[in-house]
Write a structure and sequence with these properties.
Blueprint: H1 2-66, E1 85-87, E2 94-100, H2 105-113, H3 115-123, E3 127-133, H4 145-159, H5 164-173, H6 185-195, H7 199-207, H8 212-225, E4 233-236, E5 239-240, H9 246-260
Parallel strand pairs: 2-3
Antiparallel strand pairs: 1-3, 2-4, 4-5
Helix pairs in contact: 1-8, 4-5, 4-6, 4-7, 4-8, 5-6, 6-7
């Protein structure tokens, strides 16, 4: 009998030990699972915070780039009153809005044939000529040159507005071919400094594409107002010209000037 009792006691102890071991194993599993859950939660929270931080930084960058350059002119004699880069006297009664893309070959052709006429009327005080750089041909270069050159033009206006006409001419005189790399930033900086802009100021503005967001906003508005948005587009006193050949343009300008007297 004592042996039977001893055997039973041993079995009970063994069972108790097994039960305790199982409870410890269960507690360890709970602790491990809990630790894993905590780690996963911390990772998710960390990734979420990082994502939000990066997104906020990107949003801040976009917002900064969307700010318009200084020295823009806003006409007050039209329905749309879209700000742009003024050439001529703001007191002129006729407003000519000129939408152009510095990568656009047709814009370069227009500048070489009709640009002088527009500037002649602006210099004579007959019209106020307002340039609007847009970027509809980013696809035509591997570096989105339309946006980069437009941003560079805005930077020149902001830093040295008197240098804009020369820089404007230089961009078309040195227009790169479509489907290429476009002019590098170093060349844009060189053209700007040759036009009279201090290199120390223009260099970071061009390399950082400071006004790219603003160019995007202008482009979006342009394609909305004058869908589908082809350049060059000439608008006289709010009316878009369908034919911008030199003779037609001169006739439209003369008619508007005469009507404004």
């Amino acid at each position: 009998m004592p042996n039977a009792r001893q055997a039973k006691s041993a079995r009970e102890k063994a069972a108790a030990l097994r039960a305790e071991a199982e409870r410890k194993a269960a507690r360890n599993r709970v602790l491990i699972i809990g630790s894993i859950v905590i780690v996963v939660v911390l990772v998710v929270v960390g990734v979420t915070v990082l994502f939000r931080t990066l997104k906020q930084q990107q949003d801040d960058k976009v917002a900064a780039q969307s700010a318009p350059p200084a020295n823009l002119y806003t006409p007050t004699d039209q329905k749309k009153n879209i700000p742009g880069i003024l050439i001529g006297q703001p007191t002129a009664k006729v407003t000519v809005d000129m939408y152009e893309d510095f990568q656009c070959p047709v814009c370069k052709q227009f500048e070489s044939t009709d640009g002088a006429l527009l500037k002649q009327y602006a210099d004579a005080g007959k019209v106020k000529l307002i340039y609007h750089p847009v970027a509809i041909l980013d696809r035509a270069s591997s570096t989105e040159y339309s946006s980069r050159s437009g941003s560079a033009a805005a930077a020149v206006l902001a830093i040295a507005p008197k240098a804009f006409p020369a820089f404007h001419t230089a961009l078309f005189d040195n227009q790169p071919p479509e489907n290429g790399d476009g002019l590098p930033d170093s060349t844009l900086i060189q053209l700007a400094t040759s036009a009279g802009v201090p290199e120390a100021q223009i260099s970071p503005a061009i390399t950082g594409q400071k006004y790219r967001g603003w160019i995007t906003k202008v482009t979006d508005q342009f394609t909305k107002d004058y869908a589908p948005g082809a350049t060059p587009t000439v608008v006289i006193n709010g009316t878009q010209l369908k034919d911008i050949g030199l003779d037609k343009l001169k006739a439209a300008l003369d008619q508007a000037v005469t009507a404004a007297k």
